[in-house]
Design goal:
The complex is a heterodimer of chains A (424) and B (579). Chain A has 424 residues and is of the alpha/beta class. Chain A has helices at 12-17, 19-22, 28-38, 94-97, 116-125, 138-146, 195-214, 219-235, 250-256, 260-273, 292-317, 383-393; strands at 49-55, 79-81, 88-90, 103-109, 158-161, 178-180, 278-283, 324-330, 333-334, 346-347, 351-357, 364-366, 401-403, 409-411. Chain B has 24 helices and 11 strands. The chains are: A alpha/beta (424), B mainly alpha (579). At the A-B interface, helix 3, helix 5, helix 7 and helix 8 of A face helix 1, strand 8, helix 18, helix 22 and helix 23 of B.
Chain lengths: 424, 579
């Protein structure tokens, strides 16, 4: 272990052609070539994946998925019927209305974190922030659990598009989100020197890194090595073409919408197709403390509607939806009471998330809020419950227990319960 | 990357087997690490305190905590390690080759104290101010460069002056909390006040952010949650948030537009506040909503319960000479000045800045719900800092001359359990490693490569541009942000292939590499110079062997070989980690 040298800058086919000569070499080279040979078969076999559509700022779910027309708290939006029997959503989501037979709304979310940072952490990890433990986020957990199904993946298993997501916590930097912008642009991929020099540089680098690691100064030294190793693999990988979202047909780009979020969703589909088990796409701007209704009607909802509906139908058309879970959520909902500035403030007590695809039952709405939207009147669900349900929909065992750095056992999804109405 | 050479494949495989052998070669290094005994098996010698009672106090407190925990500290860091560390922590960059060599050659037994004097003195005042301006710009306004209500150059201008003059910390706080004037220093602006940038972007929505950030940064109290409800885990109540917020209701941020709709600058002004109902400025109240829907009223009350007059009028005199009114922000600053939380919060922050962990985690969340690891030390330092007139340079001197700051970062069998990354309270029995901040890396690369430095604001703008590639905004009204300069792949790609590295490894005439290459010395002396410049140490035998192999392979091109070695040194964990 602890060598950074991989078949740098050498195409796989070219590399394989050299293996005959290399086979005579003993030692580490043997294991090295074996793993390459074993991984040569194609990538196209089916694999599970999840796409999280993260709505930064806390979207007003009672103006999108759980309307209260006529109530004092209801706001001006009307609801429209959808392709899911008996499930109505906001009039400004007409394209999603045609896809709701693929989705399920959970209208009975009740959480306690109404601060952005805390809510962001809680909804991403299933745990409330704790100064002594860094918990892994959705992406890290799913990537970690599903990594074995794509052993020949050379690009990062957890990609965050247009936002930073939440880190890998105690699972370590190997599972950190790979952050790219929605154009899929990855900076600084090329060293710009002759390949033989790249090899010399990496050899020298290995020597320095290993010496430092051997001095037992702490985990940061090893973490750095592991990330460098991943970077080297990525730089030499043909799989990087998955990031080239602009190579998608014009008509499809148009369908997703030529917005940051639209491109991000299209990029997510490409990455999942290439074998990436978890992609998070960020759409910010939901922190609407003022003038919420024109903001939603004119800007946020049209962008969301176009991209999200295109993603669902595209995944469905390609036969990928049954293996790909979609999660739509933000850090919390917004106050049923409309404030003096025509906005809604932070509200965690009663709100909605949306899931779909993978093993989820589709075309339903689970749970119910009171007529003014202020209370949950059915069984309330938490971040842990959503996380447990998403993992279950992907076939990931909920019996899994991680060991945090301090030796404490950490049940996957913080012992959340599967929301049973989402499966049957 | 389209040239594909078979040669590489063989090199790769061959070097892999070489590498296996190298594990054995590295074993002697590991063995020497193990043999590093903690300082003294029996009675510990008293740590050096340089005749400074505050340093002795820290040493005594920390050593007592080691005894209580039954652990022994790592041995002292080498001169090279300590020198690199203190340049990074005090002035924000690694030492130059010359600075390092002159320190190592200095035979004086008090050379560490003398170097601290120099770094805190006139000689380095510009660099000191630049580093702490970087640190505090991030603390006060974050890294997001997009907010039109905040002018980063204006903020920096204020901070640079403050740190260059080492103004007392209580005054610094007061100037930020009570700033009034225009936030951008443009031509013709008379009432410029760069300090205004702390609050200029935080007064929307009734100054919720102004209250939350002021409490968090200067008092170490996390109140942002209590905006909407009583805090679930500590004693902070919702009314306290709004009572604190009420101090910020006289101040307004007036936008000045230029031409189109772009905000050209923001002016902070204090105005009479007539209360939210607006009918009785003598009792200028605000309202907030309880979770059960009840509206409650709040007036300015400080976190310790001290009330100020409820009037919303600014101070003035009536015709008959009677004085009326109150300046809420100035009253707040006075209350904060007197609060025990002010020195506690800054001591905890500074300790964390230098030792890698504060006495609490996070460093800006003090209170009974989050007890500190070393309460007596924290209290004692806070008290002494107040007695020392809030002199930040003195506080820095005490911390960097203390025994825990001088320890090696290598763990030993006698202190392996002291690992705060596992969630244990820190015992400071070794120096905890941390990655350089992006600003430190940037400045260190300039130093290591002897790049010409532009001065002042121009340099800062170039650095901003470079930094912007790492920033990710959260998309909330609070303007939160994070960075990909966090040890993840984008950071490594930048270090591998980015422009800054290309520049640092350039062999152009006049550059550092060119200078080393042209120097008439032996190959090993050249490699030595690269290691000293970047890592403050000489290469190991194993590293020399690898480097020599590269020199031999590229025999016609010594400069190119040095370039490859230099690239590797700059990309190493050892370079980017402050150890």
């Amino acid at each position: 272990m602890n060598s950074l040298l991989t078949p740098f800058d050498v195409s796989r086919r070219h590399f394989l052609s050299h293996l005959a000569g290399a086979a005579a070499l003993a030692g580490p080279a043997t294991t090295f070539t074996n793993s390459i040979l074993a991984n040569a078969p194609d990538m196209k076999k089916r694999h599970k994946a999840a796409i999280l559509l993260w709505m930064g700022g806390g979207p007003s779910t009672m103006d999108i998925w759980d309307l209260k027309p006529g109530a004092a708290t209801g706001g001006p939006f009307k609801q429209i019927s959808t392709s899911a029997d008996g499930v109505a959503i906001c009039e400004h989501m007409p394209l999603m209305a045609q896809q709701m037979h693929h989705m399920a709304i959970v209208r009975s979310m009740s959480t306690r974190e109404a601060d952005h940072m805390r809510g962001r952490y809680y909804m991403h990890t299933g745990y409330v922030p704790n100064p002594n433990v860094d918990h892994p986020s959705y992406g890290a957990v799913v990537a970690h659990e599903l990594a074995d199904q794509v052993p020949n993946l050379e690009i990062p298993p957890f990609v965050a598009v247009g936002g930073g997501s939440v880190g890998p916590g105690f699972l370590g930097m190997t599972w950190a989100p790979f952050v790219v912008d929605s154009n899929g642009r990855v900076r600084d991929l090329d060293m710009g020197v002759d390949p033989s020099r790249v090899a010399a540089r990496l050899e020298m680098l290995s020597a320095i890194e290993n010496k430092f690691i051997g001095e037992k100064r702490g985990g940061a030294a090893d973490d750095h090595f592991r990330v460098v190793d991943k970077t080297v693999k990525l730089m030499s990988s043909d799989q990087m073409k998955a990031f080239k979202v602009m190579e998608e047909p014009e008509a499809l780009q148009e369908k997703y919408g030529k917005t940051g979020f639209g491109r991000g969703c299209l990029l997510a589909r490409r990455l999942v197709e290439a074998g990436v088990p978890f992609v998070e796409v960020d759409l910010g701007g939901w922190d609407n403390h003022a003038d919420i209704f024109p903001t939603l009607a004119d800007r946020k909802l049209p962008e969301l509607d176009k991209a999200m509906s295109a993603l669902v139908s595209d995944l469905s058309d390609r036969g990928m939806l049954d293996d790909t879970a979609i999660i739509w959520m933000g850090e919390f909902g917004r106050t049923p009471n409309i404030n003096g500035g025509g906005g809604r403030d932070h509200w965690a007590r009663s709100w909605s998330v949306v899931v779909g695809g993978a093993g989820f039952k589709r075309g339903i709405a689970v749970g119910e809020t009171s007529s003014d939207g202020k209370e949950i009147v059915t069984e309330p669900y938490t971040s842990q419950d959503v996380m447990a349900s998403v993992l279950h929909s992907l076939g990931i065992s909920l019996e899994k227990t991680f060991t945090a750095k301090n030796g404490r056992p950490m049940k996957i999804a913080n012992s959340g319960r599967v929301i049973k109405e989402l499966f049957s | 990357m389209n040239r594909r050479l078979g040669f590489v494949c063989l090199t790769v495989i061959l070097t892999l087997s070489v590498h296996a052998a190298s594990r054995a070669a590295d074993a002697d290094i590991a063995a020497s690490a193990d043999s590093e005994s903690p300082s003294g098996r029996g009675a510990r010698r008293t740590a050096e305190d340089f005749g400074i009672p505050h340093v002795a106090f820290i040493n005594h407190q920390i050593e007592a905590s080691w005894d209580d925990a039954g652990i022994r500290p790592s041995k002292e860091a080498t001169d090279g390690e300590w020198c690199r560390r203190i340049y990074l922590d005090v002035i924000g960059r690694i030492p130059s080759l010359e600075e390092l060599e002159s320190f190592e050659k200095d035979p004086s037994s008090t050379k560490r104290a003398e170097l601290v004097d120099r770094l805190l003195g006139d000689e380095y005042v510009d660099e000191y101010a630049r580093h702490w301006t970087d640190v505090w710009t991030t603390i006060l306004i974050g890294r997001d460069v997009e907010n039109e209500l905040v002018d980063r150059p204006g903020m920096r201008q204020y901070l640079r002056r403050s740190f260059a003059r080492n103004i007392p910390y209580d005054r610094f706080m007061e100037e930020l909390v009570t700033a009034a004037g225009v936030n951008r220093n443009a031509d013709g602006v008379e009432d410029f006040d760069g300090a205004a940038n702390f609050l200029s972007g935080k007064l929307e929505e009734g100054g919720v952010q102004a209250a939350a950030k002021t409490a968090q940064i200067f008092l170490g109290i996390q109140v942002q949650c209590t905006q909407c409800h009583d805090h679930p885990f500590n004693n902070h109540k919702q009314n306290q948030f709004w009572e604190f917020n009420a101090f910020f209701r006289q101040v307004r941020a007036l936008r000045r537009f230029e031409g189109s709709r772009d905000v050209q600058s923001v002016e902070l002004v204090d105005e009479d506040f007539s209360g939210e109902k607006g009918d009785n400025p003598e009792e200028a109240e605000i309202y907030y909503e309880r979770r059960n829907g009840l509206m409650k009223v709040a007036y300015p009350v400080f976190v310790d319960g001290s009330e100020i007059p409820r009037s919303g009028y600014l101070p003035g005199k009536m015709d008959d000479g009677t004085e009326y009114g109150v300046h809420r922000r100035q009253e707040l600053a006075q209350l904060m000045r007197g609060s025990s939380l002010l020195p506690l919060a800054i001591v905890n922050r500074m300790w964390g800045q230098f030792l890698g962990y504060g006495f609490t985690k996070p460093i800006d969340d003090l209170g009974d719900h989050n007890p500190p690891s070393h309460p007596e030390l924290l209290d004692g330092l806070a008290q002494r800092f107040r007695e020392q007139s809030f002199d930040l340079k003195e506080l820095i001197r005490w911390i960097v001359l203390s025994s825990p700051y001088a320890l090696s970062s290598r763990s030993t069998s006698a202190n392996a359990s002291d690992d705060p990354s596992l969630g244990e309270p820190p015992l400071f029995s070794r120096f905890y490693m941390r990655q350089m901040q992006a600003e430190q890396l940037y400045e260190s690369l300039l130093t290591a490569t002897k790049a010409d430095r532009a001065g002042g604001e121009e340099a800062a703008t170039m650095k901003d541009r470079w930094m912007s590639q790492f920033i990710i905004a959260f998309g909330t009204d609070e303007g939160g942000d994070s960075t990909t300069f966090n040890g993840s792949i984008p950071q490594v790609l930048m270090m591998f292939n980015g422009d800054l590295t290309k520049k640092a490894t350039s062999v152009d005439k006049g550059g550092f590499l060119n200078e080393v290459a042209k120097n008439g010395t032996s190959n090993s002396a050249k490699i030595n110079a690269l290691y000293m410049a970047a890592l403050a140490r000489k290469p190991s035998a194993r590293e020399i062997k690898t480097a020599n192999a590269i020199m031999i392979t590229r025999k016609g091109d010594a400069v190119g070989a040095l370039q490859d070695i230099w690239w590797a040194v700059l990309n190493s964990n050892e370079f980017i980690i402050n150890h």
